[in-house]
Design brief:
Blueprint: E1 3-8, H1 9-21, H2 28-31, H3 35-55, E2 61-65, E3 76-77, E4 80-81, H4 95-110, E5 114-116, H5 123-136, E6 140-144, E7 155-156, E8 162-167, E9 174-177, H6 196-199, H7 201-211, E10 215-217, H8 220-230, E11 242-245, E12 248-251, H9 254-265, H10 274-277, H11 281-294, H12 301-318, H13 327-343, H14 353-357
Parallel strand pairs: 1-2, 1-6, 2-5, 6-8, 9-10
Antiparallel strand pairs: 3-4, 7-8, 8-9, 11-12
Length: 377
């Protein structure tokens, strides 16, 4: 069994920045004003990353996926644009932070890690293509992220290759798997009558890991439907339809999507895969009618067309699927993955902080960040 570990690098670094510098308004030029500040930050990132890797089975590849400026920002949305509601100070220069991330990922790449960044693509796009590429190659993936958007990638195929997600945030520690995933890691009991658990040490380690976390089986279809119909407030993606009542906008909520899923099971589209359901004109018209009626709005042909147009927009914004991503970006990602996959997986990479940081400027003994210095008043 081959298992690849894929880090949502943006989540890893942002999470650590919040812990290191305090949540809320952060000026990277103040946080990283000194070399020892950068060193302390990188040591914290490395410590967290290594702790996660040591809890997992040995990885065939360890992959770091990093954001670039997103192609989705070119898609028009009423009232703003993609991620336009995210609070940020336009006067803050984040270049020092992203330069540090890039420099660190290059260090990891020198040590045998895979570092993937493609102009115009988000880390989510890269992770989507990596998981599908590896699954096709007969390999499995564990994605490390706190971003629920990536739950739509959770899957198990006909050859029992799979994608799972680990949220390693200490407040929301959980492991997310497809249904029936545990059959892939064998029986917990090993005896002279059942030696299956001892034959494959990777399965044994995976079993030990899964049992140490809260494990949740989820249906990625439900996650995708919710994202497309309800939108994503965090990314400024509106629901496919909303109506003004008592001075307040009411849109398609996750509860309404859940009710729709139940209605779908009793329809003629019950057996249709979600990738077809969201592309078939007849089923899209059915979805549009449900959305209008669920909000008590007029279920007219004109309104159904508007809902359908909004659904097409949301598909591009939230659905991780190759046909939703511009062809030139998809081709560039696949080219990078093809090159990177050949380089990796041949030697075991270090997963201890000392080896990773040895010889770099990020080793500063005895340094304590101001936030944690009890004598800094």
């Amino acid at each position: 069994m081959k298992i690849n570990v894929i880090f949502d690098a943006n989540y890893l670094f942002r999470k650590t920045l919040g812990i290191f510098a305090g949540y809320g308004a952060v000026d990277p030029n103040e946080v990283f004003a000194k070399t020892e500040d950068k060193a302390a930050f990188i040591r914290k990132v490395t410590m967290d990353m290594c702790a996660t890797l040591r809890s997992l089975p040995p990885a065939n590849r360890i992959i770091m996926c990093l954001d670039s400026s997103s192609w989705r920002k070119k898609i028009e949305i009423e009232g703003g644009g993609y991620k336009s509601d995210r609070k940020k100070d336009e006067n803050i220069d984040w270049s020092i932070f992203y330069s540090l991330i890039h420099e660190y990922c290059l260090r990891l790449e020198d040590l045998g890690y895979v570092y993937t960044k493609v102009t115009g693509a988000e880390a989510d796009d890269l992770i989507y293509f990596w998981t599908r590429y590896l699954m096709k190659a007969g390999e499995n993936s564990i994605v490390i992220t706190g971003d629920r958007d990536l739950h739509q990638l959770i899957k198990i195929n006909e050859n029992d290759n799979w994608v799972c997600v680990l949220n390693n945030n200490s407040k929301n520690l959980a492991f997310y798997t497809p249904h029936d995933w545990k059959k892939n890691i064998g029986n917990d009991e090993v005896s002279i009558f059942n030696m299956s658990g001892s034959i494959d040490p990777i399965k044994g380690k995976l079993r030990e890991f899964a049992n140490s976390f809260e494990t949740n089986e989820i249906d990625s279809t439900d996650i995708l439907l919710e994202k497309v119909l309800s939108g994503d407030k965090g990314d400024s993606v509106p629901p496919v339809w909303s109506i003004l009542k008592n001075g307040k906008n009411h849109g398609i909520t996750p509860k309404k999507v859940e009710a729709f899923s139940q209605e779908l099971k009793n329809s003629k589209w019950s057996a249709m895969p979600v990738n077809q359901l969201l592309c078939d004109p007849e089923s899209i018209d059915f979805i549009a009618g449900y959305c209008l009626r669920s909000l008590g709005d007029v279920d007219s042909g004109e309104n159904r067309i508007k809902v359908s147009e909004n659904l097409e927009r949301n598909k591009k914004l939230v659905w991780l699927e190759k046909d939703m991503i511009p062809k030139e970006i998809s081709l560039e990602i696949l080219s990078r993955i093809s090159d990177d996959s050949d380089k990796a997986g041949k030697t075991q990479v270090p997963i201890d902080r000392d080896t990773i940081l040895n010889g770099t400027e990020w080793v500063t003994e005895g340094y304590v960040p101001k936030k944690f210095d009890p004598f800094n008043l």
